[in-house]
Design goal:
- The chain is an alpha+beta fold and 261 residues long.
- The protein has a single domain (18-257), classed as Jelly Rolls (Sandwich), CATH 2.60.120.
- It is built from 6 helices and 13 strands.
- The chain starts with 17 loop residues before the first helix and ends with a helix.
Amino acid sequence: MQDVIDLDRYPLHRPHTPEWGALVAQAKVGLARDGLFNLPGFMQPQALTSVLDHVHPRMKAESFHHSRWHNIYFQDTVDGLAADDPALTKVETANHTLCHDQMRGTALDDIYQWPAFATFLASVMDKPQLYTMDDALAGLNVLEYRQGEALNWHFDRSIFTTTLLLQEATEGGLFEYAKDLRSDEDPNHEGISELLAGRVTPARLTQGAGTLNVFLGVNTAHRVSTVGPGTSRIVAVLSHYDTPGRSFSAKEQMGFFGRVA
């Protein structure tokens, strides 16, 4: 994995050593303070180039164009809100997607399947163990946002999301978030309405290609802003769960990937 990950900087291959423990502690501080942490330069430049050489032609020929209008909750109805409530304002998300079966044998697949990677994430998240998905399509996905496309405002269903930025957009395509916009005790529908109306200034995350990011998005609203002309934004999403055997339903696969495994 030395050719794939900068293990001198991020010693995931030496679990429970002082250096590994310091990295875990640093990540936990970031999660507690900011709701996220970044590991810049996580992926080695040559591995990044190899992955992009694999991704670019497949995005043009094989990717699924996913486009939908949705509210911030990704739900048709929300308890306590009328259908026309401003907190349910519809926004558009659009991107192009490659699935796990289209990324087999790549450096990204090596990272996702590497047990030491899951061990590191589990320690950061205070989980006994984390598992990759048993799903031919989900688990590892690569998303491209082209000119005019965006991942719009939403809350995550999973406790944490792991991404690896593969290519920065020339214009736009920035990760923006409103930390702890709601809580388990307070849904803060008014604050959500203000955000959707553009009256809340979100925080903006600056990342370079090769950066690993772990983000807590259950109660933090977030988006990727609309991409402008020039280079697209390409990001990998690596999904782990605290129980084995997780897989999308056929309906979910069709909705996200346009096909069923």
